[in-house]
Amino acid sequence: MRHFPAVERPSKDFPLPPGAPRGEWQTLAALLPYLWQYKWRVGIALSCLVLAKAANVAVPVALKEIVDAVSRNPTAAMAAVPLGLIAAYGLLRVLTSLFTELREVVFARVTQQAVRRIALQVFEHLHALSLRFHLDRQTGGLTRDIERGTRGVSSLVSFTLYSILPTVIEVGMVLAWLIVHYEIWFAVITISALVVYVTYTVLVTNWRTNFRREMNDLDSRANTRAVDSLLNYETVKYFNNEAFEAQRYDRSMARWQEAAIKSQTSLSILNVGQSLIIAIAVTLMVWRATVGVIEGRMSLGDLVLVNAFMIQLYIPLNFLGVLYREIKQSLADMERLFGLLAEHREVDDGPQAQPLTLHRGEVEFDRVVFSYDPARPILRDVSLILPAGKTTAVVGSSGAGKSTLSRLLYRFYDIQSGAIRIDGQEIRAVTQESLRSVIGIVPQDTVLFNDTLDYNIRYGRPGASDQEVLAVTEAAHLSGFVASLPEGYKTRVGERGLKLSGGEKQRVAIARALLKRPAILIFDEATSALDSESEKAIQQELNEISRGRTTLVIAHRLSTIVDADQIVVLESGRIIERGRHAELLALGGRYAELWELQAKEASENLSPPLNK
For 398, phi and psi rounded to 5 degrees? Predict the structure, then answer.
């Protein structure tokens, strides 16, 4: 059997942002605390960056001295060049590479840890959001937002430290050298070109950002549509709707294609303008240097130096436009990621929330009023006590609010008025973790992880021993099925457990709930997917399991709850009857009506077919 591995968790030192980032500066402000935790590494990396750029700028200076030495005595070139200059030239190139690699080694942990911490915080926050949020969102688009956002963090940090900042430092050093050693026109041309280049890049990139955002939105929608269709593969096949799904996906991709074409066209416009600005600036610089050499104000080495400076600046500066676009895109992706972090927790622990103290396990619904939508009330003034150690069954028509009781007890939603208490403690006053730790559920619709049987059973309590897993498997009448499988507990169940039948999945859910060892048990039509023979066998086990536990049974088949200590009939969100099975039958009300109807259906199903 496979045990859950221990997971090393980074500490959570940073509070959630108070609101969704509304722009790039707010996004950067939300990111900085994650980086600043490693400020000493940041300081060392920045020092290596400055040293690497100083060595890089010194390379053309050394080359100038070598050229000047050769030009002064061309007949004895090697003798005229001091060996120290040649050695310095080679050493400077080595130091440039060395300090650059040191910077990357030192800063790698900062970037990766920031990405890991943010991804974990978003993951935990999404699990902390209410069920309503997840019902309203589609998983495909959500996962794409997380993927692009975490990648955006890595890209932004890398581009800034490895490209933008080095370029700014190098430009500053080059400008300082030009101002000190040459005529002012060199600095004027360089500064003017930078101003025009940056202004043009910012304006055009801002214009085309709308195309990129539209493209990303359409990409997320297309991905969401594809994931949704593939998750419902069987339904698509049932109704022969492969062509329909393909058409829907193609329509999404067609809209994405148009946005992508606009984005690429605007990119070409940006690239042509940037190249033109750089070409004019380099041409002017070489012209001024050539004039200086002709007039005797500059040496041949100075011409080489200026040209080398321009080549060194040209490559990163030409790439600066691409970097700016990528940084803008990274910021847009991070905006959506931090926007998820800023999603309001509809159900949250109060500042004074304390762990639940379990005594007997009595549950009380006190005049509970609840609705998913204000226009459609679900529970209306429901008062109900689930006595400790006893079994309470809730029956009623579909939509009466039966399953809502279990969701409210788990605190997936908060009620509008009234109170829900466990051993006298209002569940909104205790921590959600402690509340849910004492409740186990076997839901009507069992969804399993795409992993092994062992993983799915052990999910009830990851630290359980193999003997405990075997015991609950036996109790859920699942051991025979497991023994019949070639791979036993290592058998993979498929996406959402689709490789198992409905009854097999429900048995796994029962075993998983038992492994949790809860004080309060909820069976939400737990045997609805079982055949009659299996239902009878498991019902006996459920009765044994429920003994001594506070149990809430939400039932459709009334035959499964005849031994319940208390039966409640719920209709239109109100309790209309309560009592034991015999008492409710004698009452002759809604319960007796439902019992008679089900008995008639069972009788008809057992009758032999008519001969025709």
Answer: -60, 135
Residue keyed to tokens 């050499």? 293
For the beta carbon of residue 169, count every other beta carbon within 10 angstroms: 18
Secondary structure of residue 357 in the 3-state scheme? coil
Instruction: Provide the angle, in degrees to the nearest 10, between the axes of the packed helices 24-36 and 300-341.
Output: 90
Distances (CA, A) of 364 to 424, 521, 555: 8, 14, 19
pLDDT given for residue 13 in this prediction: 44
Angle, alpha carbons 434-437-439 (nearest 5°): 120
Amino acid 415 reads I
Contacts of 574 (CB under 8 A, 6+ apart): 380, 381, 382
What residue ranges define each of the domains in the chain, with the CATH number in brackets? 24-341 (1.20.1560.10), 363-606 (3.40.50.300)
Q: 417-422 and 363-370: which strand pairing?
A: antiparallel
Model pTM? 0.62
Burial class (CB in 10 A: 0-12, 13-18, 19+), 386: buried
Backbone phi and psi for residue 9, each to the nearest 5 degrees, phi listed first: -110, 130
Helix (H) or strand (E) segment spanning residue 282? helix 242-294
130, two tokens = 């209410």
The tens digit of pLDDT for each residue in 129-168 reads 766 666 666 555 667 777 777 777 777 777 777 777 787 8
Pull the structure tokens for residue 484.
């019949």
